[in-house]
Amino acid sequence: MSRGPMNRHKARRWLGRLGLYLSALVLISPAVLVFLWMASLAFKNEVDNMAFPPVFVPNPPTLANFVDVFEKNDFLTYTINSVIVSFGATGLALLVGVPAGYGIAKAKMQKSAMLILIARITPGLSFLVPLFLMFQWLELIGTLVPLVITHLIITVPIVVWVMIGFFEGLPNELEEAALVDGATIWQAFYHVAMPLARPGITVGMILAFIFSWNNFIFGVVLAGRSTRTLPVAVYNVLTFEQVSWGPLAAAALVVTAPVLLLTLLMQKEIVAGLTTGGVKGG
Amino acid sequence: MSANPIATGPMGGEQAARLARGRRNYARQYWPFVVPAGLIVFAVILFPWVFTLFMSVHEWKVTGSTSFVGFANYVHLYEDERFRLAVVRTIYFTVLSVAAPMVLGIAAAVCFQSNFFFRGLARTIFILPMMATPVAVALVWTMMFHPQLGVLNYLLTSVGLPPSTWVYDASTVIPTLVMVETWQWTPLVMLIVLGGLASLPTDPYEAAILDGASSWQMFRHITLPLSWPFIVVAAVLRLIDALKTFDSIYVITLGGPGTASETINILLYQTAFAYYDLGYASAMVVVFFVLILLISLLLLNVRQKQAFQ
Q1: B152 touches chain A (CB under 8 A)
Q2: Residue A216: is its pLDDT beyond 90?
Q3: Quick check: pTM over 0.90?
Q4: Which residues pair with B66 in a beta bridge?
Q5: What's the pLDDT tens digit per position in A46-57?
Q6: What is the ipTM of this complex?
Q7: Does residue A5 belong to the interface with chain B, where contact is any CB pair within 8 Å?
Q8: What is the DSSP string of A137-161?
Q9: What whole-number percentage of chain A has pLDDT above 90?
Q10: Contact (Cβ atoms closer than 8 angstroms) between residue A216 and residue A235
Q11: 3-state DSSP call for residue B91?
Q12: Using the beta-carbon criterion (under 8 Å), do A38 and B140 form an inter-chain contact?
């Protein structure tokens, strides 16, 4: 008598599992499709890339497109530029942003926190008109300085925002004990709060780096021929090689591969940071 | 990280407020921590805002010739048909780019909340689009949209559907760009809502199961109302990000065909850095910024209410 309902219950649970796996598959397939197609285009030769119906699996895979990108389009210079700009802007942001997050969290400076939030909300383009003029007057256009400075618009708010959330989550007791023992607030910050907040600093650093690396708009306006960052360089491959898909996809893969790898390796930190108020640069 | 990061965010909680009252005497000592970051924020964020206001009441060419014109730029903006159309397109693009990622993002959050084999890997793959370099991804989409050789039309026709014109026709260009935006930003909605779902109590569900409620009833009457504050935060963030969209539209269409996908951001870019009409562009920035500021006030309001709920 009890066998009927039991079986029905089992069947329903089994169907539920199946539905779950199917929906997960449906949800991730657009991402998989686009990234696999990028890789497919990057590793195929030009004939296969222009074939119709499309060839999906590179056979044999070729590195010619990557050679093309680095030799003809000088991607080595642009990679170095990107590394300098992103590391510079992230390093500076950590230097000023970690103490700022601490100060805002400890002193409950709500207005400063709001200012940071508004910076997150303003379109990057709206900073560019006056800054472009300013850099022109200072004759800095054509160097990497304007890029590092404008990338601070992305990295500083991210680091400060992540650190505020992190320092607020730390218990006060340890620092208070240090203060009672005669430490200055700087010592309490440097020797007590900072070591505890190391995971938060990692989160802020990764997110600031990724969104600086990905930034396009500041570079497209402020970079000269030799100071292009990778996203700008990739866009330029598009304008010059409209018909040549292999190098285009290879260039796209070169730019985005470091970020994708970082995401795969550090997904826990990234998820933690992104849920803290939906940090996003640009 | 705390279990409920949004509610315990920088706006503080009740407990934090109590602590702050006790520590008020110390508050002043913490200003030096903020000064270096404050200087940078002043130089690269506040100064540009003020200078933009100043520029917006001038006729300002990049050659250096400037003259005070009062509100002429704003009057021009009001009469400018091209700007008006850009506003309409921006609204059209934004509404769709909020709605689609919200629906999909909530569905994805519910899916990723359940425990299943490979869930961690699936979730990581799911968030890759929002971390990938937007320009690189936009390039791949551009190649996929190619009317004759593109893989998307091949896939459509191979399952018996008619090919689409994608970004090559005025009627399909904005929905196509919305599709790219949805692909890229649904993960952020998913993450915020998933954070909310993780903080929900389990008792209501246990009671509902005892009462024989169906999964849909539990979602509709328990999950949705309880995670509503998180859904609102996700929606407001999505709204702001959709208004800011630049990279993908610039790379894929540059506002085309014709001006069919020219949003405020694209028109702003063209005015400032293709026509070098910096005064007029500044007026556009001011109007656009006021619009976004109004929305951001809404966001702050929501966050504050959440913190003290």
Answers
A1: no
A2: yes
A3: no
A4: B60
A5: 878 887 788 888
A6: 0.88
A7: no
A8: HTT-TTSSHHHHHHHHHHHHHHHHH
A9: 37
A10: yes
A11: helix
A12: yes
